[in-house]
User: What shape does this take?
Amino acid sequence: MGLLDSEDVPSFSKGVSMNDQVLIHAPRQETASQSPSKPRRMKPGELSLSHWQVRDKIAGRYEVQAIKKGGMGIVYLCYDHESRKPIVLKTFQDIFFSEKTEVERFMWEAETWVRLEKHPNIVRAYYVERIEDKPYIILECIAGEDPFGPELSGWIRGKGLTLTLSLNFAIQFCSGMLHAQKKFETLGKAFVHRDIKPNNIMVTQNRILKVTDFGLVKAFQAIRRGRKESRPGETGGRENHSLTRIDSYVGTPAYMAPEQWRGEDIDTRADIYAFGCVLYRMLGGSCPFTGASRHEYRIHHLETPPQPIPGISPSLNFVILKCLEKKREKRFQSFREIREELQAFYHDRTDEYVEIEEEGEELEDWELLNKGISLDNLGHHREAIQSYEQAIRLSPQNARVYNNRGTAYRALGQYDPALKDYDRAIQLNPRYPHAYNNRGLVYLVLGQPEKAIQDFDMVIQLHPWYSHAYNNRALGYRALGQHQNALRDFDQAIRLNPQYVDAHYNRALVLERAGLREALDAWRSYLQVAKDIPREKILEVRRRLEHWKEKVQK
Assistant: This one.
């Protein structure tokens, strides 16, 4: 059987690197990444809301304990078996993953959230990771106070808010927003949250208020176009309406400023209006306006004046109603103004001021490592290197940081500094599989497969269950023309992880180039596991499969 022409054969899937992903809540003993677990099969007729189901282990470490869906997003409440702490993973529902432009927009917004870094009144985004080529934001898990739960909406429904506590929460909210605004200014970007509502405000067991979902609404808006809008009541009564699009903007109807309804450009004053709606509901028990349809909400927000809250002092009502002015130039112009007013009310009642955090907290070395990994995953390798260098200044003996900086240099094609960093990581920790693996990948690129194989041998010696090391070593054997050794390693990678798409692909190519009939079955196996591969690549492989079948028949 003759070989296919070389131009008909696509390139092999690249080797898999081992970034140190990742330290979550605190420094921990390093463990290598595990192979991803196989998603549970859906039962006949069962609605698939997500790629993963309860009890699955995402990326071999995040055990799914609950799943929550809202709008276009999906949240996995997980137990992280490496950090041994609860964690939250947030991403898009599966139906949106085929829209590459929107996925990239989501990654860009996720980057913005990570850049907010650390502030007590913002839900912490630890880092951004691609798992099976899908973007996930790894978030702080908020455990709420019984019986109210983690969201401010639970405190409102459960009537757990006093006037004093409401003022306290509102002041904390302003502090979180001011920090976010300052961080955005340093990025040269305007800051608008776009979807302030009680469900996007979290409260910890220690009654620390945290704002969440920064920037994601902007990511959602392009996706929502052309799709069926949610109807009133689809949120199970938890909010008056779900996320919706009005012209080029999105928001939740009960909290949307007049300029949002008109489709005008918006700024922080739209968030101030939404905050006024939230504060009105906190103190009065309901939103300033109710409606049975979006049209009714639109009319109310554009035309109906809000009524003062009964039982609240005229001076506090004045503050709330000033937030709700129809003309934005008549509202408060910043959250700092509002916070000063609310602090005065709080002091009058308690003779104290709410402690506020003006500046975000400084990042520790492991947090800088996380930030660097996030920037790496988002393609900002030079900025990632800056984060790693900050981490090295704090912890110059940390092998993990050198490994990750080397990977950022490798992504930029700067192989000499990458090799120096991997060498330094190995010098600091001679039993460090990540650095051996990544140095081997550089040797492959530099056309030195013998050295690469030696490094992959070391990875396998340290962690014989690590499927990617066998795939990577097989690429080294293939470069040397040792196809039997390559096939042996691809087979072992697949035995360790039957869903390992790249290993299936590479194995099929080796068999095809060797002119072996087993290539037909190998391509079929690849198509069975390649569930989340771009449609164009699937079609390409199917064409190749048909072409190969014709050659076999001849």
